[in-house]
Amino acid sequence: MNKPLKLIKIGNSTGVILPKEVLARLRVGQGDELFLTDAPGGYTLTAHNADFAEAMAAAEDIMREDRDILAVLAR
Q: Which of 10, 34, 40, 43 could form a disulfide with 15 if both were Cys (CB 3.0 to 4.6 A apart)?
């Protein structure tokens, strides 16, 4: 898809209007958050936070490795 997007003034900021097809593909609606990531070929717009997903994956690895210690701490 190669479609021009319109920029609009929102207070002292600038917003972009996304077509409903893009919102449907991202599975987002008004009030949801999108994440803009700097990528080698430009920018990537996603509906999930890559930094948070990476941190959660690391936490799950730690929980898996130290299950016994966490069980004792939970008592």
A: 10
pLDDT in tens, 2-31: 889 999 999 999 999 999 998 998 899 888
3-class SS letters over the chain? CCCCCCEEEECCEEEECCCHHHHHHHCCCCCCCCEEEEECCEEEEECCCHHHHHHHHHHHHHHHHCHHHHHHHHC
Instruction: Of 7, 33, 31, 32, give the one whose Cα is nearest residue 18.
Output: 7
- Residue identified by tokens 């077509």 is 19
One-letter identity of residue 14: T
Cα–Cα dist 30/65, whole Å: 40
